[in-house]
Amino acid sequence: MASALSGAWLLARGRAEGLARVGPEPRDAQRSFWAVALCLPAFLFLRLLDWAWQGGVPGHAGHAMALELMAYVTGWAGFALASRPLVAAMGRLPRWPLFIAVWNWCNVVQYLLLVAAALPRLLGAPEWLDETLGLVAVGWAIWLEWFAIRVALATGRMQAAALVALDLGIGLALSAVTAGLS
């Protein structure tokens, strides 16, 4: 786990050699789903901050949090499942275990970026700084996913962008469903 996380951190800095620290075997891909549990505290922290910044905990907070957690798990698993046939269509199916392991571990780094970007607002930073840091963190997270996919699948820019778009699309669709059910 530590090696894979250090590999994700190298990838976050644009260093393709981070790929060598993430195992390419199916069992490595299976183990990489521990990232779901590692990211859960950050996910909960960001959800609670979002509620606080939008005026407080919503009515039926338990129901709202249950929906958020279902969307979290569904989105994570949904992308992993939906990406497999696309990776196969790209002719890169043998690299799918490495790709999914890299994607999982890079999610940990992405969540850390988002939490770090949210902290200045908690400390009373001006709104312009908060918005700038949020934009930089989201941009870096999207770039990291694109770069990691491109390197892990040894594929072109557009194929990597298509997979990032799939991930973002799943997330946006789940957010809309969750908002509609809250």
C-alpha end-to-end distance: 36 Å
Portion of residues within helices? over 70%
Average per-residue pLDDT, rounded, comes to 92
Assembly context of the chains:
single chain
Note the main sheet: none
Poorly predicted tracts of residues: none
H and E order = HHHHHHH
Please state the CA-atom Rg, rounded to the nearest Å: 17 Å
Structure class: mainly alpha
Number of helices: 7
Approximate shape: globular
Number of strands: 0
Which percent band covers the strand fraction?
Answer: under 5%
Description:
- The protein is mainly alpha-helical and 182 residues long.
- Helices cover 80% and strands 0% of the residues.
- The chain contains 7 helices and no strands.
- The chain has helices at 2-12, 26-31, 34-53, 61-89, 96-122, 127-153, 157-181.
- The longest helix has 29 residues, at 61-89.
- The radius of gyration is 17 Å and the shape is globular.
- The model has no long low-confidence stretch (mean pLDDT 92).
